[in-house]
Amino acid sequence: MGRAERVVLAYSGGVDTSVCIPYLINEWGVKEIITLAADLGQGEELKPIQEKALKCGAVESLVEDATETFVKDYAFPAICANTLYENRYPLSTALARPLIAKLLVDAAEKYGADAVAHGCTGKGNDQVRFDVGIMALNPKLKVLAPAREWGMSREETIAYGEKFGIESPVKKSSPYSIDRNLLGRSIEAGPLEDPMTEPPEEIYAMTRAIADTPNEPEYIEIGFERGIPVSVNGKTLNPIELISQLNDIVGKHGVGRIDMIENRVVGIKSREIYETPALLVLINAHRDLESLTLTGDVTRYKRGIEQTYSELIYQGLWYSPLKTALDAFIQTTQVNVSGTVKVKLFKGNAMIVGRQSDNSIYAPDLATYGADDEFDHKAAEGFIYIWGLPTKVWAQKTKG
């Protein structure tokens, strides 16, 4: 007995999502499957993927170009929040999932589908991000996850697909699982599952090996307006151009590689390799500009908000009430975060060497130790007395 009449399937063209088509039709009695592939700037031709879906049995194959939306509505808010999951990963892959969930829900409404589906397994983070995102956007919509339930090994999945004319993929020379979009690449599996194995140079595509980077440093200036990156070296760029150009410039200097053991939502640890050249530099530059334009108490309080915000994205809670509430706080803090940050790129390092803003609350006449010093040094004595009074009273009582 079928679980749904018409289904919109998130489609990548890979083995699992391709096999989902005949599986949903033949095992679960779905009558019509519409596939949806999201173009998020991954740099690959999606026409063959579109054609493959139709060959596999889809009645319609959609390709949605959502790259600009991805950058403006998902990446830029994350930059304003300085999001680094477990203080390292800038969520390049995780940020794509709530957008794909929205595209699925929108397509289901447009085409009158009563369910959406994805090809995620039961061990990863993406199943959580899709299911919860879809649930938040349309709680009445069914979510089907056949790969989580069919219990087939990789070999069995390929064999099942061959029964329905899905060609077995050419044997991969690469054992890695790779996901890419405009913000970066994630690489896992194969030899990388041994935490002591150094990642081979062949897995990288966006960043150069240190030995191949230029022998002279390169300086770039990144301009921000109200927390949003808008220019590189004084030239205003649209969101896609800005990320693309920074990826090229920064990656050329070997900046943007991350090798980490991270804690997945489902409770297991995984070894992940990421390449996120532009995103890492933008977050670091943005945080530095905040140090010039935000008061100390706001900066300190915002750090805790940023950690929570990062965890919400990673855990699939982009559309949650808490995330919406934190957005309001973060947007308020960004009103004066405008200016320019100078970054020095050299041999795998991105060092911030300068910053300026018309909204700067750095006061040279107070900070200087030179002749222009206007700080009232005599006032310090009274301040220290009041500041230290609780400690003094405590010491008198406890130490006689």
UniProtKB/TrEMBL annotation:
High-level lineage: Bacteria, Bacillati, Cyanobacteriota, Cyanophyceae, Pleurocapsales
InterPro entries documented for this protein: Arginosuc_syn_C, Arginosuc_syn_N, Arginosuc_synth, Arginosuc_synth_CS, Arginosuc_synth_type_1_subfam, AS_cat/multimer_dom_body, Rossmann-like_a/b/a_fold
Residues at which L-aspartate binds: 121, 125-126
Pfam family, one: Arginosuc_synth
Keywords assigned: Amino-acid biosynthesis, Arginine biosynthesis, ATP-binding, Cytoplasm, Ligase, Nucleotide-binding
Binding, ATP: 10-18, 38, 119
CDD domains: ASS
GO molecular function, one term: ATP binding
Record protein name field: Argininosuccinate synthase
Protein EC: 6.3.4.5
Assembly and binders: Homotetramer.
Record: residues binding L-citrulline: 89, 125, 129, 177, 186, 262, 274
A biological-process GO annotation: urea cycle
Source species: Stanieria cyanosphaera (strain ATCC 29371 / PCC 7437)
Residues of the Arginosuccinate synthase C-terminal domain: 176-394
